[in-house]
């Protein structure tokens, strides 16, 4: 749905040239939540602002829904922008307007008649969960509520695309989660395509299906979130995965486990994203005469299911233990017996 071809942005400051976005080519599917992650200065903000031409590209093309955004004159662009909503880290609300009037603002600009505007504003206030606060001013709202206003305003004209520029970076972790849940909800209900940029892997893990990693203005790695979690290739990507999973000093840990637990089998279970397997441990314990002792591990949830590693000790008759392991092997959880005492 969104096709980005050879997109570049070069800034000139103090006679020096900075290539913020460097010959970037990318295709983004319709209806998903696409994340772009990178450290400060990687070029994420510039990239997202090029998509609706808040920044003018130095070269390259942006095609959204078969429309060449980069070839449009200012009138065409004004109309096209109604189809591309945007939310910001610092909300960018109008401080002299109430919640209701902030949300009505883009409708006024689009020339929507008053009665229709009021109906739409009520609908949006319900959608983002601000029913009690419609007459409040931004200064009377919490950060999360301000971002809800930002989201409602961005959705006012029924855009096909929602751009999120570090939309949760100014919020505490709990509020971040609530806003991310709202974005997932909106994506499902309205089917619009969401592109978000962030420097937090937690945000990607929680709501994105696809991710691109940016460094020095380029995309250095991209793919399904789960694949990137499982097999990060670039150093920068590995660091982002560690934000969520911690460092992998596994080998040292395994030897400690083998030394400490001298009965039964010690098994490594690698969960790779099937939600259907989340009750695996209890299923196995019910089905076979084995005891399962969880020793260590870390599982995290992604939009494609659970991902992570769990070390367990399985005890019981040899035949039952083998059957239990045989059962796990048939699921999508990868099994590796790392110590077999029998
Ligand atoms: N208007 C501008 N003029 C000159 N240089 C700019 C301008 N905007 C961005 N840059 C430079 O372009 C590079 C990319 O900046 P950008 O803000 O896109 O990165 P970012 O990944 O979004 O980082 P951050 O999260 O810190 O904003 C940086 O080196 C930045 O200094």
Automatic annotation (TrEMBL):
GO CC, one annotated term: plasma membrane
Q: Which PROSITE patterns match?
A: ABC_TRANSPORTER_1 (PS00211), ABC_TRANSPORTER_2 (PS50893)
Q: Which domain of life does the UniProt lineage start with?
A: Bacteria
Where in the sequence is the signal peptide annotated?
none
Xref: Gene3D superfamilies: 3.30.70.260, P-loop containing nucleotide triphosphate hydrolases
Domain ABC transporter intervals: 2-241
Q: Name one GO molecular function term.
A: ATP binding
Keywords from UniProt, A to Z, are: Amino-acid transport, ATP-binding, Cell membrane, Membrane, Nucleotide-binding, Translocase, Transport
Give the family per the record.
Answer: Belongs to the ABC transporter superfamily.
Question: What protein name applies here?
Answer: Methionine import ATP-binding protein MetN
Q: Which organism is it from?
A: Lentibacillus populi
